[in-house]
Structure to design on (457 residues):
């Protein structure tokens, strides 16, 4: 009995000493510094439109969403500041308002947006897009041409990160041209041509007269806002411009009205597929890829031409015009500093790792170093570079260009729809465009505000 009691006493003392020691080592104020706090859980919502993408370093990449998913997974695995998970969402271009601005202040709000500046620039004016200057190293700034940075900035801050660009021109099917006796207009190689308006009329009228049934001369689409970019390019056909000296729309300019009349006459002259006001870009794309359309819009990121490129020729829009659109990243402030920090680190991760930055090669990379390294593998890089003198940049980061039901893109296309349907005269269309598009600009200017640069709004 005595031995048992002594053993119990010793055990009790030992346990008490251990507990005391543990209390000393783990006091309530947490002085045991080798204990790690649990990493905060952060879910980054990355959104991207259904954007085709060519990547010469990864030929399996056909959509921008594929690139972003791979980059997001790689980032999450190595990130040690938070337990990051990536939620990637893809949306159709016609659903952008629903996907972006309609989700403000909800659990589905966008943290990172990857798309073209043509749409993204409008979001700067909501006050929700975060400046990114603190993640731009001097090396990175010197690697990207100043013209890209200028397009990415507002009031001295950088709100968008340029990743790549595309140049929009037109592509034609040489076999269809040859079958209609238009061989004299065909160029060799991949040079980008310019045709006079007289030549355009001759080509389109000849195609309309000689192409077989159910094969059409040139694309046209007015069902939704997808058509506004090429319509705005066509407005330059007679030398007109979109804006006056004060930055307001001026569709009633005599040269612009002539361009609208020229577009409308194409319906009666058989230039377009039937009822073009009810078509969208994808409809014309399908026709072209099935050899049912002779001329279509083209850039080296939109799709890969089937077969030998010798089967195709390239030409600027009527009026010797091309358009160029930069694509890149934005970070939104949704009230969570941890999300903002992780989103910025994700973008830094891409730009500081050549393997991810190289995904821009296939389009026209914003990075000089990537262009130099992969330029020989990028389709028509030299031709697009030389053709830059013909590029017109019409949005110029205007407020309310996109993102609401009263934005420029939302109110522009219904007037073109009516023009193609014959319910507007060119003069009526010009007047209506001036009214609705300038109202959209005015509203955007009145409501415009930029993020202050603080971590949360």
């Amino acid at each position: 009995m005595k031995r048992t009691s002594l053993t119990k006493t010793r055990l009790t003392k030992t346990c008490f000493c251990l507990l005391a020691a543990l209390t000393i080592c783990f006091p309530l104020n947490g002085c045991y510094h080798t204990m790690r706090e649990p990493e905060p859980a952060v879910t980054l919502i990355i959104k991207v439109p259904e954007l085709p993408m060519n990547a010469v370093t990864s030929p399996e990449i056909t959509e921008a969403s594929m690139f972003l998913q791979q980059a997001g997974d790689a980032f999450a695995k190595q990130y040690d500041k938070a337990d990051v998970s990536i939620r990637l969402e893809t949306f159709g271009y016609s659903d952008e308002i629903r996907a972006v601005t309609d989700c403000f202040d909800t659990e589905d709000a966008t943290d990172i947006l990857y798309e073209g500046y043509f749409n993204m620039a409008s979001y700067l004016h909501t006050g929700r897009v975060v400046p990114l200057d603190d993640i731009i190293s001097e090396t990175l700034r010197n690697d990207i041409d100043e013209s890209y940075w200028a397009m990415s900035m507002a009031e001295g801050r950088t709100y968008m990160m340029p990743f790549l660009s595309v140049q929009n021109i037109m592509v034609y099917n040489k076999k269809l041209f040859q079958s209609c006796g238009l061989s004299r207009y065909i160029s060799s190689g991949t040079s980008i041509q310019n045709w006079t308006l007289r030549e355009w009329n001759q080509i389109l009228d000849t195609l309309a007269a000689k192409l077989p049934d159910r094969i059409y001369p040139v694309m046209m689409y007015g069902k939704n806002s997808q058509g506004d970019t090429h319509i705005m390019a066509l407005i330059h056909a007679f030398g007109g411009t979109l804006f006056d000296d004060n930055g307001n729309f001026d569709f009633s300019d005599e040269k612009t009205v002539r361009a609208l009349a020229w577009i409308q006459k194409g319906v009666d002259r058989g230039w377009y597929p039937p009822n073009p006001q009810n078509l969208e870009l994808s409809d014309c794309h399908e026709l072209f890829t099935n050899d049912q359309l002779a001329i279509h819009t083209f850039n080296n990121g939109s799709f890969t031409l089937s077969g030998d490129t010798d089967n195709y020729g390239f030409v600027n829009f009527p009026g010797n015009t091309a358009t160029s659109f930069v694509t890149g990243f934005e970070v939104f402030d949704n009230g969570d500093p941890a999300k903002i920090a992780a989103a910025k680190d994700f973008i830094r991760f891409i730009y500081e790792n050549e393997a991810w930055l190289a995904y821009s090669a296939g389009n026209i990379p914003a990075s000089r170093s990537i262009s130099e390294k992969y330029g020989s593998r990028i389709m028509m890089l030299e031709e697009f570079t030389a053709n830059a003198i013909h590029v017109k940049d019409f949005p110029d980061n205007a407020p309310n260009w996109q993102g609401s039901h009263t934005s420029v893109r939302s109110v522009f296309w219904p007037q073109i729809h009516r023009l193609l349907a014959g319910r507007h005269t060119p003069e009526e269309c010009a007047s209506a465009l001036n009214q609705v598009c300038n109202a959209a600009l005015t509203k955007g200017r009145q409501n415009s505000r930029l993020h202050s640069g603080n971590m949360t709004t």
Remarks:
- Residues 2-25 form the longest helix (24 residues).
- The chain has a mean pLDDT of 89.
